[in-house]
Amino acid sequence: MSKHGERLENNFSRYVGTNYAVATNSGTSAIELILRAVGVEGTEVIIPSNTFIATAISVLNAGGEVVFADCN
User: Fold this and answer.
1) 29 vs 43: CA distance, rounded Å
2) Tally of structural domains, the chain
3) Segments forming the whole domain that contains residue 20
């Protein structure tokens, strides 16, 4: 990681009052990291059917099974 990325993580973690922060290149990557952290691998993850495709891709990349829920 670059010194700029490391500085961003340090400054952000101090700003929000946590010990750590992780900078990602996209929202898709951020969602995937969160899903991996909570351990969705091998489980069903229910997402709205009218969501952006990146939501489903993040679930698949983290090893989860996408289940679409219809939204009226």
Assistant:
1) 19
2) 1
3) 3-69
Write out pLDDT tens, residues 6-30: 999 999 999 999 999 999 999 999 9
pTM across the whole model: 0.80
Q: How far is CA 24 from CA 29, 34, 35, 65, 68, in A?
A: 6, 11, 14, 23, 26
Mode of pairing for the β-strands spanning 44-48 and 65-69: parallel
By the 8 A CB rule, do 10 and 22 touch?
Answer: no
| C-alpha to C-alpha distance for 25 and 29, rounded to whole angstroms | 7
